[in-house]
Design a protein that fits this description.
The chain has one domain (24-163). 77% of the residues lie in helices and 0% in strands. The chain has six helices and no strands. Helix 3 runs antiparallel to helix 4, helix 4 (83-111) runs antiparallel to helix 5 and helix 5 packs antiparallel against helix 6 (142-163).
């Protein structure tokens, strides 16, 4: 496709139609009841506000990771991190990645015709993986560890079933 084709009225109209068909089916812009239509618009606006807030949280979290890492590096012994510092840094990195995944979930919620369950399960797996990485095994009970293991296994099986090609 040439650059001229991309700017043709027919192509632009088709692209606009494609964009309209990608709206979330549970919150359509068109509805026979005017009140429901207004409520859908409000909910879509709320989801957009959540997306903006999530981007702010991501940026602030990145600044926090940089600050904490900098503070750890400049304290004696310089440029050395102990295991606790490394685990804490990994946890902070994973929190940022989870926030990014949540933002992607919000963005897809607005634009996809169905909720991407695979991405939601993957986000949950990342969150529980973070919990496992930063878990202080000296302070938790065996029941808590078993419950966490059950969640990991359940999410892993769910993800495998969703992604399995039939």
């Amino acid at each position: 496709m040439s650059k001229e084709d991309e700017h043709s009225p027919l192509f632009l109209r088709r692209r606009e139609e494609d964009r309209r068909t990608l709206l979330h089916e549970e919150l359509p812009k068109e509805h026979e009841d005017p009140m429901i239509r207004v409520l859908h618009i409000i909910i879509r606006g709320a989801v957009r506000v959540l997306a903006i807030l999530m981007v702010i949280i991501i940026v602030l979290s990145i600044i926090d990771v940089i600050h904490v890492l900098y503070q750890r590096i400049i304290t004696p012994p310089y440029f050395l991190l102990n295991i606790g510092d490394i685990l804490e840094t990994f946890g902070a990195f994973l929190i940022v990645l989870i926030a990014i995944e949540i933002f992607i979930n919000i963005r897809l919620y607005l634009g996809a015709p169905v909720l991407p369950v695979q991405l939601v399960i993957a986000t949950a797996l990342m969150a529980i993986a973070r919990k496992v990485i930063v878990l202080d095994y000296d302070k938790v009970t065996p029941d808590y560890i078993y419950a966490t293991a059950a969640v990991v296994v359940g999410l892993g099986i769910t993800y495998w079933l969703i992604t399995k090609k039939t």
